[in-house]
Amino acid sequence: MVKSDIKDIKLAPFGKRKIEWAFSQMKVLQSIQTRFKEEKPLKDVTIAACLHVTSETANLAIALKSGGANVFLAASNPLSTQDDVAASLVSDFDIPTFAIKGEDNKTYYKHLNAVLDEKPQVTMDDGADLVSLLHSERKSQLKDVYGSSEETTTGVIRLKAMEKSGALKIPVIAVNDSLTKHMFDNRYGTGQSTVDGIIRTTNILLAGKKVLVCGYGWCGRGVASRLRGMGANVAIAEVDPLKALEALMDGFVVRKISDALKDNDLVVTATGNKHVIDTSHLKFMKDGIIIANAGHFNVEFDYDGFVKQASKKRELRPFLEELTISGKKIFVLGEGRLINLVSAEGHPPDVMDMSFANQAFAAQFLIKNAGELAVKVHKLPDDIDREIARLKLETMGIEIDKLTANQKKYLESWTEGT
Ligand code: ADE
What's the gap in Å between 247 CA and the centre of ligand 1? Predict the structure, then answer.
């Protein structure tokens, strides 16, 4: 058997069926896998991936392996692993996997180091932890790395900060910046799966609830619109005046966090930032408020700070904790970790289809252009992005019109007017 550190290999049969079901919904990835099998564009390249270990990620790993790569997978969050999927990857697909749901921080980093020990030429991140490790504790490996790809907004923010400060030493593809990624995954994927995670954790009725969404980027927009669709009264907190204005004109109430905490039943953070809700906000919170995070890292609200202030803490349901703070009850979900992957299964396969098509193309792009790319954060070329959208429409059986020659000419000219 291949190397691994997983919960229980006996979980594999159920994981395999979940992987098969997800695959049936990932038609773009299916077509990439078919092509990869024939062309082997990733032949003999070692790819270390640090992604949420879900049935969708399993299909990406299988597609990369079909393309000839040696794939090593570690979890990108201590609570997001689907242990049955991890077991199936090892037992049915011979993909070395290092991921256990509930692993502590030490094990999390042991797993990241295990995939980097394989001396990858390409790394794949969801949150930039592999790149960060390569640039801090494993610098000697950087010269052998063609480049890395990054899945999420938070990771791209970190990488752009590295680029700006001159710390970045390898080219990176910001998969998140493809339109076929953030317009769909961040909005519809985070929107639906965050609502799913909140419901699975709490079983509350959303209709009629007053909900505050912090952040109105692509993820915040998705979360807000899906909560509104369930009948919640949604308010938005934003620091960017443009996004605040957009939220207002999309029909949401825009409020300051300290005001909204006084009368909202549920708060969801989706900002990519740190301590958006911290201990200084505790005094404003309504008794019985529920707090969840949809952003990548567990720092968006100060979970540790809240726990320190609590005179009592108990778990009422899996990933639903009651904190008693100054006589008030505050309910926190998923220890502040991204609730859609902690309590639910993350984004649905139909949308991860496009995100992971971007990852597969990014791996191919990094290998094809090895040694040629500037050391900076790149986007995938626009024609690849459009090709993924075209493929997605095709697999959905949707046809669209084409510009006529006359229309093309009109768009390229400037002489025709009134
Ligand atoms: N990020 C969000 N949802 C995901 C999923 N289902 N699989 C992998 N990464 C994800």
Answer: 26
Q: Please give the distance, rounded to the nearest whole angstrom, from the Cα atom of residue 37 to the centre of ligand 1.
A: 24
Distances (CA, A) of 76 to 53, 89, 130, 297, 412: 8, 16, 9, 10, 45
Contacts of 175 (CB under 8 A, 6+ apart): 149, 150, 151, 181, 355, 358, 359, 362, 380
Task: Compute, in angstroms, the gap from residue 83 CA to the centroid of ligand 1.
Answer: 14
Residue nearest to atom 9 of ligand 1 (CA): 52
Helix (H) or strand (E) holding 55: helix 55-66
For residue 325, what are the β-bridge partners? 328
pTM over 0.90: yes
Q: Is-contact 124 49, C-beta < 8 A?
A: yes
Question: What are the structural domains, with CATH classification, of the chain?
Answer: 4-181+348-395 (3.40.50.1480), 188-342 (3.40.50.720)
Dump pLDDT digits (tens) for 328-387. 999 999 999 999 999 999 999 999 999 999 999 999 999 999 999 999 999 999 999 999
Sites in the chain below the pLDDT cut of 50: none
Ligand 1 pocket at CB < 6 A: 51-52, 54, 56-57, 189, 341, 346-347, 352
How many other β-carbons are positioned within 10 Å of the β-carbon of residue 313? Answer: 14
Element at 46 (helix H, strand E): strand 46-51
Q: Are the C-beta atoms of 88 and 12 separated by less than 8 Å?
A: yes
Between the alpha carbon of residue 160 and those of residues 175, 251, 379, 382, the distances in Å are: 13, 33, 12, 20
List 316's β-bridge partners, or say none: none
Report how far residue 300's alpha carbon sits from residue 278's, in angstroms, rounded to the nearest whole number: 9
